[in-house]
Every structure is written in structure tokens, then in C-alpha cells.
Amino acid sequence: MAEKDILVRVENLKKHFPIRRGFLIQRQVGAIKAVDGISFDIHRGETLGLVGESGCGKTTTGRTLLQLYRPTSGRVYFEGEDLVDMKGERLRRQRRKMQMIFQDPYASLNPRMTVGRIIREPLEVHDVGSAKERQTRVQELLGLVGMNQHFVNRYPHEFSGGQRQRIGVARALALNPSFIVCDEPISAFDVSIQAQVVNLLEDLQAELGLTYLFIAHDLSMVRHISNRVAVMYLGKIVELTDRNTLYSDPQHPYTEALLSAVPIPDPEVDEKRGRIILEGEVPSPANPPVGCNFNTRCPKVMQVCREVDPEFKEVAPGHWCACHLVG
Amino acid sequence: MSTLLSVRGLETRFYTQEGAVQAVNGISYTLDEGATLGIVGESGCGKSTSVLSMMRLIPSPPGKITGGEVLFEGRDLLKMDAEELRHVRGNRIAMIFQDPMTSLNPVLTIRRQLSEALQVHMEMDHSHAIKRSIELLEVVGIPQADERIKDYPHQFSGGMRQRVMIAMALSCNPQILIADEPTTSLDVTIQAQIIDLIKRLRDEIGMAVIWITHDLGVVARLVDRVNVMYAGYIIEMGPVKDIYGRPRHPYTIALMGALPRLDDTAHERLQSIEGLPPDLISLPPGCPFAPRCDYVLDRCLTENPSLDSVSGDHMAACWNLDATLGYQRSSR
Fold first, then answer.
1. Which end of chain B has less neighbouring CB within 10 Å, N or C?
2. Contact present, B231 and B45 (Cβ < 8 Å)
3. Do A281 and B264 touch (CB under 8 A)?
């Protein structure tokens, strides 16, 4: 089988945030291991979902991938080129191809800029097109996200949250990127607006051939929009497979517990499901457990789990898992 | 099952510079002993405001309860004097909120806050109150309760703080627990723990629960009956299986269609509802959902329908119920 066109390749990526103490002289006394050695590919044209609960490292992964944070170690290849090695102008030019949509539509738009200026800014920064061409492009982008072209002279505060998110999407598309990291783009919204934003993202993907990394904690929505899903826990990916297999044949005990915890809006179906209620809480990423990160809460824990960190390996074609019980 | 709570025609307004916000517009429902009711709807629909109104927790000004009655044990909560109300609130009817950090006093220990409710409402002496407080923390699953009781709220995680809130709410064996979005800010596995806890306690104590949320998944798992709210009105109400299996109001139908389901195999497009909820300061005449409704008739624009029975105790407020009769959730 021919290898699918791999747009992004991540190899053993780590992002640790140092914890420093000291008054006159700061010493590093520890580190928050937000992302602690993850590897995966994103195929051109697909949506890879990245899901997990608070503190699992999914947002940090998205930002480190785009080099908004510089990795502590590991590699990120975009279209075959190593982003980690790139600096300055070279990295800046690569940035045109990879963009981000943010969680908070209120915080991610400059309240003192008009909508037109906000969407035009990426074009100005990268010196693309003449003034007239930029104007035309802004109109085009507003149309793409389903907004009235007369909105160019309005300010963000005049719009609802859902509309602001559309503005954020238009801005992300300005430079014609091939890859977009969507960092919790819908968590701030009500159900009916979430559906609007997700439908828009799906339509744009079909129309423009976009590739998405879709980061969210809502497993139902992630499953809906993604082709494949990666589940993260405390800085590591515990399982990665296609959307259907994740649901029908989860291998990792954390994935099973997560699936069981997600309510299904159908009382007849929901009451027939088994329940796995996890004990305790997530350990601190500054002090992850020895061995498997999940061993403090795993219902199937064995002695080896408390000593040896399981390898993330392919246990079936296209199905990756990090667990001593599997493979 | 006897009726514990009876809400009739509750109406609340907020008077602002731009005009009067019609937050709650004449809602009526009952709650039986031991029953669990879910009140669902999106932001601004009035679900939180309606229960805060019932409990007389609306800041006044600018808020004002402009109509209706809320009968609890034969007495109208809206007409009680301060003394009577204090005896009910926190005691016979307890509330827990979304963000425990704002409901717990950050400068007092948990021990102090928990025992306070017991001493005030149950007239326990100090040492009994402490003992009972530790028991309550154990009941809600706080490990090493006798040690942790000396901690301050910020020393607990979000899920633990919510458990402490539940312990406080239950301390006086209330007949009704009102939970306003208690798990919205929690991770899904912690949410599952909290829901499990509430169910167990509810079954053990036999208390009634009103659970307010925008999360239609949580409600399916927990409640017997559902009230669906929109623009300050209850637009549909009924047994949970009816509301999910045979929704009749176009808004409920649209809401269900907008939800992704974990057990979806066919990748169907989500149904989005075009437009936005109405401005509660200038609600148009007629049905509040008419401008966004797929089944709208001329009549809907001028006359606001009231709740009509569709079958048994399943009711919906719609002029075009004939059109939604055939609606069936597609099996996925």
C-alpha cells in the first residue's frame, strides 16, 4: 500500500516548562512535562483529532507543532522539512502554510482593529499582494466563511461569539494555508453554534483541501469531525486509530474509561452502556508517576506498569497504543 | 408520588438602561417527591434565572420577580418573609452552582464552612457538627476526610471542590437539591464521578433533584423528566425518553439534530440552527422561535402558542405539531 502523503510528522516531541525558584539567582528545580515524547503523522487532507482532559498536553502539542513554543526536544517535519531547525525568515515563510484557530473568540481578535484589518493583517505581515488585491481577498474570505462583506468596517465587539469565530477562521485562511491547528475552536459555544462552526470547517476542508489538527476535549465532536483520533493523557499519546475503531475496539484502559464517561444523548442507549468510573484524579505533570503515567488510576494495572513506561507501538495496522496489556 | 414543588406562571424581569429584559416569561411545572427534573436550554434561555428566582437569589435591582407563585410544602416561596425563607434555603432546598470557587468562601476552612450550615440549620453543637462534617466528606468520597477538612478551598481540585459543595448541600438532608451546571467546568471523567455520586445519594436519601444544564448528554443519563427552555419560555416538557425519542417542538428537534453522538457510525452532517436567539429586551410578538423555525406558519408570527399535550404528560408549545408528528430520530 502506497504511503499516504504525509504533511506533518512529529517524532518524539517533548515540551517541558521549567519550574524555577530563587530570589537573586533563579535555579531550575523541576519541570512541567506538558508534552513528554509523542510521535504521530498527519496525512494531507485528513482531520486528526487530538483529545484528552485538562492538563493532558493537547494545547501545548498544537502550539509546539507550529513552533509557537520551541520544543525541548524532538522533531517536527512539515512537508518533509524540519521546522525545529528553521529560524528567522525561513521559518516565517513556512508559517504561511500553517495557521491556527483559537479557542476564545473574544481574546483572539484585537478589539481595536476593524474586521477588515484583522483579516488583512496576515497578508500585510507576509507582504502578499497589492493593497487592492488584499481588499479583494478580504471580501473573498468573508464570503467563504458566510459573512456579509459589509462587515469589513465593524469592530469585533459588534459581533456574537460565533461570528467572531468565523472572523478568526477567515483570518486563518488569508494566506491559503494547507494546514490548520484548531485549538478547541468550539468549546466556548452553545450546541447550535458549535454545529455551525463545525459545518463551516468541514465545508472549507472539502472546498480548499485543508488538513486539520482538531484539538478538543469533547470526544463526541472530535469523533464526528475527525478521520483519525489520538487520545492524550498526562503528556503522552496513549492510543491513536481511526474514528470507528476507537469507538468499537479501544485498546487502552484510559480510552475505555473516557468513552464510558462521555454521555450519549439518548436515554435508551445510554442506560445499556457499561460504566467505568475512574478513581482519583490526574497526577501533576510536574511529577508524573514512574512507569506508565496512567498506573495510579488504571483499573487493569499490573506490577510492570508501575516500573516500566510502555512503548507506543502499532498493535494492528493503523492502530497505535501504549499499554503493557496490548501487543 | 406527591407533588413537592409547584411553579405557576413564574415571571422575572431585569430592568436595564436599554429596557426590561424578559428573562423568564410565565413558566409552570411541578416536581414530585424523589423525582429528578432536567432543565435544559442554551445560554440566555432563562434556565438559571428561573431557579435563582424561585430561591429569591436574583439581585434586586435590577431583577424583579414580576409574577407567579412557587409552592413548596403548601407555602409560596415568593411571599415568605426573611425568617421563613432562611429556614427553607440551604436546609429544605439546597443549591450547588457551576463554579465552586465562587460559592465557597476562600478564607475559611472547609471545616468552618461545613459545620456552619449544620450549626445554623440543624442546631448541632460544635463537636457534633465537626463529626458530622467529616462523615459527609467521606460520603462524598473525599479521601482522608479528617485531615482534608482543615484545608482551604484552593487546596482542592475542581472535582473535589464540587464534592465539598455537594457535602454542604446535603448536610441538612434537603428535600430538593438544585444543581445549576455543576459539572460544566469539569473534565468528563470527573463529571462521570460526580453524576454517579449524585445518583447514589439521591437514591439513598430519596431527595428530588433539579439539574440545570446545556449538556443534553448529561441529562439523558440522569433525569426522569425534562423541561426544554427557549427565550424564557418552557417550549417542551415530558418524560426523558419522550423528549429524546419523540421530540415534537421544532427547537428541540433542531437541538437534537445539532448534537454529535459518540455512537454515530454514519457520518451525517450536523443540523445547525441558522440565526441567533431573540433579543429578550424586544421579544417579537408570536412564538419566540418563529424566525428560526423550519416548520413556521403565519400564525406563529402573531400568536405565541402555549403548552399543549402531545401524549400523556409530554407537552409542547407549537402551532404546527401535526408537522412534527412524523419526526423520528434516525437510528445511527
1. N
2. yes
3. no
Residue B295 grid cell: 416548520
Q: Do B47 and B53 meet the contact criterion of CB atoms below 8 Å apart?
A: no
Q: Do B244 and A268 touch (CB under 8 A)?
A: yes
At residue B87's C-alpha, the angle toward residues B50 and B73, to 5°, is 65
Contact between A307 and A291 under an 8 Å Cβ cutoff? The reply is yes
How does pLDDT run across B204-233, given as a tens digit for each residue? Answer: 889 999 999 988 988 888 999 999 999 999
Question: What are B125-173's pLDDT values in tens digits?
Answer: 899 999 999 999 998 888 889 999 999 999 988 888 889 999 989 888 8
Q: Does the distance separating the beta carbons of B262 and A247 come in below 8 Å?
A: yes
C-alpha cell at B124: 448541632
Distances (CA, A) of B303 to A42, B285, B297, B306: 54, 7, 10, 9
Question: CA-nearest residue of chain B to A262?
Answer: B188
Whole-model pTM: value is 0.88
Grid cell at residue A128: 502578499
Tell me, yes or no, if A231 comes closer than 8 A to chain B by beta carbon. Answer: no
Q: How many CB atoms lie within 10 A of CB B30?
A: 15
User: E strands of B120-214, at which residues?
Assistant: 176-180, 208-213
Cα gap B215→B186, rounded to integer Å: 12
Residues of B in contact with A257 (CB under 8 A): 189
ipTM comes to 0.82
Residue B332: per-residue pLDDT? 43
